[in-house]
Amino acid sequence: MTEHTINLARRGGAEQAEVFAAETEETPVLFEANRLKQVNRRQTSGLALRVVKDGRIGFAATTRADGVDELVAAALEAAPFGPEAKFDFPPSDTYPSVDVFDPAVDEVSVDRMAHLGQSLIDALRREEAELVCEGRVRKAVQTVTCLNSSGGRFSYRRSVFTVSVGGTLVRGTDMLFVGDGDSSCRPLLDTKAIEESVARQLRYARTTAAAPSGEVPVIFTPLGVAGALVAPLVMAFSGRTVYQGQSPLVGCLGKEMYDRRCSLWDDATVPFRPPSRICDDEGVSSRRLALVEDGVVRSFLYDLQTAGLAGATSTGSAGRSGSGPPAVSPSCLVVAEGDTPLADMLKDVKEGLLVEELMGAGQGNVLGGDFSGNVLLGYKIERGEVVGRVKDAVVAGNVHRALRDLVAIGSEARWVGGALYTPPLYFPRLSVASKS
User: What is the CATH number that goes with domain 2-202?
Assistant: First the structure.
């Protein structure tokens, strides 16, 4: 079907054409109100066509197996209104070997998945009997295939296994939200780490404490880093925002912009991580790409079109969401570990915050690196100890300034959501406002 689609597009006048096909078989097991709610098994597939006709890009997608003629016609019709193409599709390449498929994922039975989720919920309710939990255990196998008119071709299978749990505790007008999860290309049959993480959240939140106000020390857990700091950071390293002059890192390539202990890279070759792959969604080989090295900005993220506009080279950073066109996207982001245990960070704080999750952190000037959000889950630190959960508090700052002024980088890094590996980060001062 992919070759037939390419041939139809070329006969229709396209100078270049690319077909991207993805098929997913998944089984989600869902829990609600502490009980199993639903088990599904579904299969989805999609076919996307990108053409270059008269120098302009046309795009169309379909989920119909018999809709190839309409797909080609739609892409060709869209081309005159599309952007000017600044790239050629890549030819065939020798891709690295990246382990992203484990047949054991599909062999996990639905009964085992249901038991896994229910056991996790039961364990958390032993910690807090009034907790109302929802959860999800999902297994999936995805097949990705791409072919272009330059002879480029790739195909691979990816397995994904995800376990997540969230809990709500309501007492009067007080609502507490806790939760965690993990995702891998291998079966996650040991949920002890998730259980311990949420249990720790519950223990820290058993009492409440008045939040500090003003410029105070703030420590972000790995969950907090993922929820508050990653989005503005990724946006700044997008080659598109740099090319458009909207990134605060314009002109900063090769300059020391962050603390010298800070290193960050994007790596699509990490074994058994769901975002990993042999190549990006345009056929450019995967690699480990240093974005920040010892505080120095080393690279930005580019797909083919953005690289062409910027006069750069694609970094293999094209991703696709569903059947949409490719766009600049990171794969596995890795923040280098430091040498300070979280316990030592806490001991260093006389009065401050430990942030687990911010709500609405994308408010403000995200392009400029700002973040601001209500503390959905966070705790007051007093004389080196966590003394209780804070309520009605807002934390705000700028991720680029914060990473310049780091006090410490944690030594206990972990994967968050399968796509980010990060330790806790300790900042000397961020703006905290509270009703108290």
Answer: 3.30.2290.10
